[in-house]
Design brief:
The protein is an alpha/beta fold and 193 residues long. The protein is built from ten helices and five strands. The protein folds into two domains: 122 residues, HAD superfamily/HAD-like (Rossmann fold), CATH 3.40.50; 59 residues. The protein is 50% helix and 12% strand. A five-stranded parallel beta sheet has the order 3-2-1-4-5.
C-alpha cells in the first residue's frame, strides 16, 4: 500500500533553472568542455564545494559577478503551481517528500520564497548529506525521514538515472514529463486525485 509520494525539485516542482542558465552560457560559446557546468554543479550538490565557491568559480568563467550567478539562475525558476495544488490534495492521504540534488543555501531560499515547507513532510537536500541521486543511500534517507518502507513510496523525477536509482532500492519510480502524465502515473498505482 502506498503511503508516501516523493518528488524531485528541479524539472518537477520547479523548472531546471540552472540547466536553462547553463545552456545559455554554452550558446554564448563560453564553455569549451561540455561537462564544466555539469561537473561543478555536481560538486556543489554533493557539498564538496560551497555555494559561494561555486558562484565565484562560475562567475569567472561566465564573466559576471558572483552575486549575479544565483540572481540569474533563480530568475529562470518557475514553480509548477498546478502540481503544488495537486500535492495539497494528495497530502490529505499521503506523506509527501522532497528529494533534491541542490545547494542547501539556495534550496532553503526557494523553500522560504515559495513557502514550500507547507507542501512537504520531509525535505532532503543532497548537499547536506554529501551525496546526490542516484546514490542508493540518499533514497533511504528520504524513506527514513518519512518513516516508511521502500514499497510504500512512489518517486517522481525528470531524469532517468534518478528514476533508475529509485527503482534500484525498491521504490516504484516514474519519469516526470508533465502534470497530465503525473496524474496517469498516480492512477496506475490506484491513486486518484
Amino acid at each position: 500500500m502506498i503511503k508516501a509520494i516523493i518528488f524531485d525539485f528541479a524539472g518537477v516542482i520547479g523548472t531546471e533553472g540552472y540547466s536553462l542558465w547553463a545552456k545559455e552560457q554554452k550558446a554564448k560559446g563560453i564553455e569549451s568542455k561540455s561537462n564544466y557546468f555539469h561537473n561543478i554543479s555536481d560538486d556543489m550538490d554533493r557539498g564538496n564545494i560551497s555555494t559561494q565557491t561555486f558562484s565565484q568559480e562560475v562567475a569567472k568563467v561566465v564573466g559576471i559577478t558572483s552575486s549575479d550567478v544565483w540572481k540569474e539562475i533563480s530568475q529562470k525558476i518557475k514553480i509548477n503551481n498546478e502540481l503544488l495544488n495537486l500535492i495539497v490534495n494528495l497530502k490529505k492521504k499521503y506523506k509527501i517528500g522532497l528529494l533534491t540534488n541542490y545547494s542547501d543555501v539556495w534550496m532553503k531560499e526557494l523553500v522560504l520564497k515559495y513557502e514550500l515547507d507547507k507542501y512537504f513532510d520531509s525535505i532532503v537536500i543532497s548537499s547536506l548529506h554529501k551525496m546526490i541521486k542516484p546514490d542508493k543511500k540518499i533514497y533511504q534517507i528520504s524513506l527514513n525521514m518519512l518513516k516508511i518502507k521502500q514499497e510504500e513510496a512512489i518517486f517522481f523525477d525528470d531524469r532517468q538515472n534518478n528514476i533508475d536509482g529509485g527503482e534500484s532500492v525498491g521504490i516504484k519510480s516514474f519519469l516526470f514529463v508533465d502534470n497530465n502524465k503525473f496524474i496517469e502515473d498516480l492512477r496506475s498505482c490506484d491513486i486518484v486525485i
